[in-house]
Amino acid sequence: MGLFSWFKKPKLAYDQKIFSPNGRLVLHVQLKGGRFFYSVEKDQHLLIAESALGIAVRGEKPLLHDLGVVRDYEKSRDETWETEWGEARRIRNNYHELAVYLAEINGKKRLFTVRFRVFDEGVSFRYEIPPQPEYQRLTIADEITEFRVDNNALAWHIPAYQPDRYEYNYSQDPVYELTHSVHTPLTIEMPSGYFISIHEAALYNYGSMTLRLNQNRALMSDITPLSDGMKAYVELPFNTPWRVIMVADTVKDLTINRMLLNLNEPAREDFSWVKPLKFMGIWWAMFVGEWTWAPGPRHGATTKHAHEYIDACKRLGIEGLLIEGWNDGWEGDWLQNGSKTNFLQPMHDFDMDDISNYAKENGVKLVGHHETVGFIDNYEKQMEDAYKYYASHGVHYVKPGYAGSMMTIRGRREYHHSQAGVNHYQRALELATKYHIMLDVHEPIKGTGIERTFPNLLTREGARGQEYEGGALSPSHTTILPFTRLLAGGMDYTSGIFDVTNATKRIATTIARQLAYYVTIYSAMQMAADRPRFYEKEYSKMYQFIKDVPLSWDSTLPLLGRIGEYYVVARKDRESDDWYVGAVTNETERRVRLDLSFLEFDEDYEAQIYRDGDGAHYRDNPLAFAVEQKKVRSSDFLDVWMAPGGGFAIRFKKIQ
Ligand code: NOJ
After folding, report:
1. Mean pLDDT, the chain, as a whole number?
2. Residue 641 falls within a domain, yes or no?
3. Catalytic residues
4. Distance 442 CA to ligand 1 centre (A)
5. Is residue 111, in this structure, part of any structural domain at all?
6. Which residues contact 361 (CB under 8 A, 6 or more apart)?
């Protein structure tokens, strides 16, 4: 039976509704006048008004008009699966699916399918293009996917196509202002009070989707182009990434949307070697100017410093150590030298054999570093050897970096988030998998849930992180991330800077808030980012929380949240009966009342509270903190105060 056997007499009208499993979310699909549309409503409130779907192919008329429906197919699924690590141990994947097989009624009679999945927590769909009678491959010139959202709804956005990739402060504007492309996840508060976030899942071999208003005032997919203006070169059959519209009644419910992971395939091989990691780094000392990446009198990555940091990891009970600036390429202006970086050649004062042996003897796992500066041609020439080199030194964690505003791929300047960039990140990930290497990607491609398939992709950056402190971050930033960037997966924010009053890198948070981040910003690789001396002596009381906090959770329960104002979340440890709470506020001080009913009924817990000290303020009194213990039960309430720019962290230790 050929692929074209379904090409019978197309229907010229089609109207179908698919309900989510609980019936509250409705997808409406229609074929009218030869065009194919969808809309989405929840509890009879329109979230996405009639929006067009189609694809433009180079040199041909777009697959948008003169369409007919050849057949449709429905199915349902309800399964629960276990994660290797993450914010929840078990995830339910429950949806109703509708696949609509479309064909042009005239001309070349080209074929494509739109497959929809309707979950209780949102709607997703993708285009599937089978081999066509006339061609086996094609060039996608554009994707015409509309998301027609009320233009008065409020969106939190960062600009696309900018030199610092995803590293911008969020702005909040009505949708009608989005005339320039913005990145996803794009979180929108609807006038009806519902929240949606538009994003994508399973981004492979395709430009990533940004969004912008079109002439019809609908948000429309703007797929990141290649340097020749095309969006993707693909072989058939080809499936686009899933287009995802997450939907929630309240903004805090948005933070536990699991559609991205559910829309990715399970891992195809054994990943039992993957393990989350807490690590320190020969790192922040460079940001505050004590040391340098470049060789010289203050070079950070020396054998001597590596020994000292390995000793510190052991003393402080931190499992991993990142070392940056160890290889040839950091001399002079490293941002310009990326075409010459050598990923196999340590600098003269860095003895890799000695250091890796010393780390091993002391039970410390090294985190390697590959700063490519986006010079992909130079990196890919060495990539396999570079991973082999690390693996042969027992290094099974690597932090690749892609600083620089564009990538150089096959001699062309390409966007990080173009098809060429996406394919590079994927080649690197697959090679890392081959050598059993786990990744913390900086300047990454955005998260689209592929860590379900590749659990060794432990974390990524992909937003403004702590390194922007010293002027470019305000306390509200980390009260926006949980509802925007973090919907796309974990982030290496590089938390735990206790030297908040440093003159070079003044941090716009209180010290207690640094602990909250370990709970409010999920990451399977968490850094204790400051220098070891800031975790000892007078700091050791606060440091205890960094030591205790888990990297993988059994479950996650958002307690309170308003975008840009505050976020409070409770998470249960995967390995014990303990719960943890993290809370952050913006520039406004706040007292929150925690309802402890999430704790196990009739059990006693010791609440170990790390909070802002009385009178703390991120601007002029950031070091005031208090650590206290209280006995609590699930019937209790706990009131905790947050300073302006402050926050708190609590461990609820079950008393056995
Ligand atoms: C930017 C990364 O985010 C940072 O962590 C790293 O230290 C520098 N690039 C140098 O690679």
Report:
1. 97
2. yes
3. 467
4. 7
5. yes
6. none
Domain boundary, last residue among 262, 277, 311: 262
Which residues are near ligand 1 (CB < 6 Å)?
Answer: 324, 371, 401, 403, 442, 461, 467
Q: Give dist(CA 97, CA 77) in Å, integer.
A: 8
Residue 193 has φ and ψ, to the nearest 5°, of 100, -15
Closest-lying ligand 1 atom to the alpha carbon of residue 287: 7
d(C-alpha 485, C-alpha 449), whole Å: 13
467, 473, 492, 523, best to mutate for ligand 1 pocket (most atoms within 8 Å of CB): 467
Closest protein CA for atom 3 of ligand 1:
442
User: Per-residue pLDDT tens for 398-442?
Assistant: 999 999 999 999 999 999 999 999 999 999 999 999 999 999 999
Query: Which residue's CA is the closest to the ligand 1 atom numbered 10?
Result: 371
Calculate how far, in angstroms, residue 581's C-alpha sits from the geometric centre of ligand 1: 29
Q: How far is the CA of 401 from the centre of ligand 1 (A)?
A: 6
The reported pLDDT for the residue numbered 139 is 97
* Residues sharing a CB contact under 8 Å with residue 310, sequence separation 6 or more, in sequence order: 321, 355, 358, 359, 362, 364
Give the domain range for residue 48: 3-149+199-262
Assess if residue 489 is contained within a domain: no
Segment 59-101, tens digit of pLDDT: 999 999 999 999 999 999 999 999 999 999 999 999 999 999 9
User: In this structure, what token pair is assigned to residue 81?
Assistant: 């699966």
Ligand 1 atom nearest residue 401's Cα:
11
CA dihedral 119, 481, 319, 349 (to 10 degrees): 130
Mutate to test the pocket of ligand 1, among 288, 371, 460, 469 (most ligand atoms within 8 A of CB): 371
Domain of 650: which CATH number?
2.60.40.1180
In a domain, 407, yes or no: no
Which pLDDT value is given to residue 7?
53
Structural domain count of the chain:
2
Ligand 1 pocket check: which of 283, 324, 343 to mutate, most ligand atoms within 8 Å of Cβ?
324
Domain final residue pick, 262, 285, 314: 262
Tokens representing residue 174 in the block: 């009505």
